[in-house]
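User: Can you predict the 3D structure for this chain?
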Amino acid sequence: GCETVHGIYHLCRVRGGRAVPVEEVALGVQSAHLSLKRTVRIDYGRENTVEVILRAGAVSLHGQVLDPGGCPVSGARVRLLDRDSRGVLGDVSENREAGAATTDAGGSYEVSLTGKQPPCFVVAEHPDYAVHIGDRLGPPDGARTRHDIQLTPGARILLNANWGPQGFPDSRVGLEAPAASDFRSVLEYRRSVELNASGRGEIDRVPPGVWSLSWLNPGNRLLRRQLLSVVSGRTYEVALGETEVGEAAVGAAATVS
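Assistant: Here is the predicted structure, written as structure tokens:
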């Protein structure tokens, strides 16, 4: 992105008690983290309009990806998502743009911030951990801003469709971020599982936060929707009973271990 700054200047140098128009001036412009210094030629005896366009230079985000114990994680994929590079995470990961970085043996990464349009979120993925969806990033602090990431094992959700003595086989449960989530404008997180013949299923490595669970029958008719708040490292048992479709309270119909 760029910012345009307009200015009209009357520039003179005093010589022998007279104001003499100058030929060249050194011009410096600063706006947030963008700056420019250049020499501008001024015509004699005229009003000059100088247009300066500020373009962001090379700005990057760098740091380490760490496991729950603070040790470096190699092979993690880190990317920066903004409103122009909407991503889908979960069972299917889409929009793996070329700007993504893979951590080295020391867990280090660096991704470019140049051209990104806020709001921006850092996402880190590794098959052994829950997807990391970071907080909204503020303006960069200098050309290189450090941002370390700590991965978590995530939560485990055990599902049980208690619909009559036979359960409710072949139905499906989907998990996604509620519409009110901060990051919904730039990315989606979706998981799903088909319940087995006993009406049971499991979703593991769920990132900490509040999620929406939707239970659908084999014909994709919505049977129940509820919100569930999870903490990493815990197991949640959710009983999907024969109830009215609607939003249950956060954490309802769940036991925690």
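The chain has a mean pLDDT of 77. Residues 4 and 53 are 5 Å apart (CA to CA).
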